[in-house]
Design brief:
The protein has helices at about 10-25, 35-50, 60-70, 75-95, 135-145, 150-160, 165-175, 195-205, 250-265, 280-285, 290-300; strands at about 100-105, 110-115, 120-125, 215, 225-230, 235-240, 270, 275. Strand 7 and strand 8 (about 275) form a beta hairpin. Helix 1 (about 10-25) packs across helix 4 (about 75-95) and helix 8 packs across helix 9 (about 250-265). It contains eleven helices and eight strands. The strands form three sheets. It has a three-stranded mixed β-sheet. It has a three-stranded mixed β-sheet with strand order 4-6-5. The structure holds zinc ion (ZN). The site of zinc ion has 4 residues, from helix 9.
């Protein structure tokens, strides 16, 4: 690498990085391999050249920045490589080397995509699937080979149910997207998040919680994620599906409280795992006066929002 600023576009860098990362993941003894360190240094170098205050950038560019920042943490980078290595190994066995391509990144709105023709199978995976186990990867490769799409979907759902980290990771990438999510956009049809925040702050934090830099409704209704908080950017998002007259105020207050707790406590790391819902978090969460009925309401109604 020269010391010059990188002049390639995010799309070109992404494409090249996918090739290098796959090659690095397959290197023998990859953790010790010089390739691994070289690729990591390249990522850090790219990270240093990124705009510090991203303004007026496309969603693609914002996701690219979030992805490179994510990878420039050695723990995350190793996790990505380990996951790639498992998958590539299994895909090589099941489909055969040279007969598929694999890309892992957070740019797709879907968790995974498989395109297959006679020559090649193109596989794209969302970074939030990084916690897949060796066994998941094996089943994943087998199901692609047999083109069992509904079973593949079931595998991903099972993975999501037992892997709480995936949600956090995918929310992290979702929340950096630009328009309209980078702006304060608190007014819904029935609820104004500005008021929800102020009331929640009064009731639960004695008015002492600083307002997140950005509060907004999610662009779309979501049936699994009621809210998210992006620690790096200080952006709090609430699921648009909760903006309805038949959703009680205490549910919004509780979801707001949950996300503000993330702001108050931050994210702890344990090895390569990012821990947001620590024991401390869960204890504090239960202190919400409507903890039980709010949880019950969400469990019962999330799918119907
Ligand atoms: Zn949470």
């Amino acid at each position: 690498m020269t010391e010059k600023r990188i002049s390639l576009s995010p799309a070109q860098i992404t494409e090249q990085l996918q090739v290098i990362m796959n090659k690095t993941a397959l290197a023998e003894n990859y953790q010790l391999e010089a390739e691994t360190v070289k690729t990591y240094n390249l990522i850090v170098h790219i990270e240093e050249g990124l705009p510090k205050e991203p303004k007026n950038l496309s969603n693609y560019y914002l996701l690219f920045i979030a992805w490179i920042r994510w990878l420039s943490d050695w723990n995350n980078y190793s996790l990505n490589l380990l996951h790639r290595r498992r998958l590539l190994g299994q895909l090589n066995q099941q489909i055969g080397a040279g007969k598929f391509t694999l890309e892992i990144y957070p740019f797709s709105s879907k968790l995974y995509g498989v395109k297959s023709d006679l020559r090649k199978t193109q596989i794209q995976l969302h970074e939030s699937l990084d916690y897949m186990t060796e066994n998941d990867c094996k089943r994943f490769a087998q199901l692609i080979k047999r083109q069992r799409w509904s079973d593949l979907k079931r595998l991903i759902v099972e993975y999501q149910e037992r892997t709480p980290q995936w949600k956090e990771l995918s929310a992290h990438f979702q929340s950096v997207k630009a328009n309209p999510t980078h702006r304060n956009q608190t007014r819904g049809r029935y609820y104004d998040l500005e008021q929800v925040f102020t009331a929640c702050n009064q009731h639960n934090f004695g008015g002492k919680m600083a307002r997140p830099k950005v509060i907004h409704w999610s662009p779309r209704v979501n049936h699994t994620t009621m809210g998210s908080y992006n620690t790096n950017e200080d952006i709090l998002m609430i699921n648009r599906g909760l903006d309805r007259p038949d959703v009680p105020g205490y549910v919004l207050d509780f979801v707001m409280y949950h996300e503000l707790l993330h702001k108050a406590l931050g994210v702890k790391t344990a090895g390569s795992r990012r821990m947001a819902h620590t024991k401390e978090f869960r204890d504090l969460e239960q202190r919400h006066p409507d903890y039980e009925r709010a949880q019950a309401f969400i469990q019962k109604n999330a799918k119907r929002l």
